[in-house]
Amino acid sequence: MTTAMQFDRRLQLAALALLAASLAAAPDAAALDVIAAQRLARQSGCVECHSVYQKKVGPAWKDVATKYRGQADAGQRLYKHVTTGRKARFDDGHEESHPVVKTGDPARIGNLVEWILALPVAAPVDVPAAQTLARQSRCVKCHAVDVKKEGPAWKDVAARYLGSVGAEDKLYLHVTTGRKAKFADGHEENHPVVKTSDPDRISNLVNWILSL
């Protein structure tokens, strides 16, 4: 093994030790930087193959969390999976090297890993950030969590999308592209768009609605 390879190996082991220590502290979902985790996932191209709720080319992250749940070394194993290019097997039986995350910062990677492993059926989200964006975008004029206003309650939106393939992508488009929305009296209007161009803030809002 070359000196450079040994150095890289020591760095990787140090990063894994740091992750193990942070996971041992057992942070709850509120301690996670959810938006930062989503941002790293997007910047690394993870969202091309994965989403929180639905299987895409790869498994849904909530299913990844379920697979690892209860395993003492879950954090270390998932950390290796997203940083070392290990082989991933696809439905048709072929294998490819799994892409690696686009950062060498073990804290950012650890945050992403902890976010994925924290996923129950209802995704951990940054609730205050989602509510702030909803308020700033005047979504609350027509919607509430559990009461129908001019538009449906968000709990009913979540129920409607439950089990729908591509739910996150569909709802993301709904709140960003001004698609037609049908009202109780039958008329249609363009749905207002959210007041941000930050895809991670929008994804956080979408996942919050779907988690209700």
- The CATH architecture category of the largest domain equals Orthogonal Bundle
What's the order of the H and E elements? Answer: HHHHEEHHHHEEH
Strand content: 5-15%
Give the low-confidence spans: 16-27
Number of domains: 2
- The CATH homologous superfamily of the largest domain is called Cytochrome c-like domain
Cα shape: elongated
State the strand order across the main sheet. Answer: 1-2
Q: What is the C-alpha radius of gyration, as a whole number of Å?
A: 19 Å
- The residue-averaged pLDDT reads 85
Structural class: mainly alpha
Topology, number of strands: 4
**CATH third-tier fold name of the largest domain:** Cytochrome Bc1 Complex, Chain D, domain 2
**Distance N terminus to C terminus?**
51 Å
Number of helices: 9
CATH level-1 class of the largest domain: Mainly Alpha
**Major β-sheet annotation:** 2 strands, antiparallel
- Which bin fits the share of residues in helices? 40-55%
